[in-house]
Specification:
By secondary structure, the protein is an all-alpha fold. The protein has 5 helices and no strands. The protein is flat and about 55 Å long.
């Protein structure tokens, strides 16, 4: 799964709605550790808003960890299909998209799905690498 941009996370949506400027100083990737400190030190947020933002941040972190755990368990499985279902899905939808493009079919429905699959497949690898570097 591709690491979410700050504005796509639960805590990001919450802080943006409150008008906090925290999102303007964060990089696109590797922001979760920095974000916790920024939330705690932000003078514009009330104590309740800080607590809510930190809880939402924890939810985002847990979501990313659970997806990685699920994919790790798939890779440790003895089943060939569970190890290869994501790459096969990516190949199938990529070929379908290119075929549809050449045959001039409307690709609106498959474009969003293919984007999600590509982002999930390649983005999750980036998150796993960042997690390994952090250890």
């Amino acid at each position: 799964m591709k690491p979410k941009k700050f504005s796509e996370t639960k805590v990001g949506k919450f802080l943006i709605k409150l008008g906090s400027s925290i999102g303007q100083v964060l990089p696109e990737n590797g922001y979760l550790g920095v974000l916790r400190g920024l939330i705690k030190s932000d003078g514009k947020l009330t104590i309740e808003d800080k607590e809510t933002a930190l809880k939402l941040l924890d939810m985002d972190v847990i979501e990313m960890q659970e997806i990685s755990k699920r994919w790790d368990s798939d890779m440790k499985s003895d089943s060939w299909l569970s190890k290869n279902v994501r790459p096969l899905t990516l190949v199938f939808f990529s070929i379908s998209y290119v075929t549809g493009w050449f045959l001039e079919y409307p690709l609106d429905s498959i474009t969003g799905l293919l984007s999600l699959i590509v982002a999930s497949y390649f983005g999750s690898r980036g998150f796993e690498k960042l997690k390994a570097i952090g250890k």
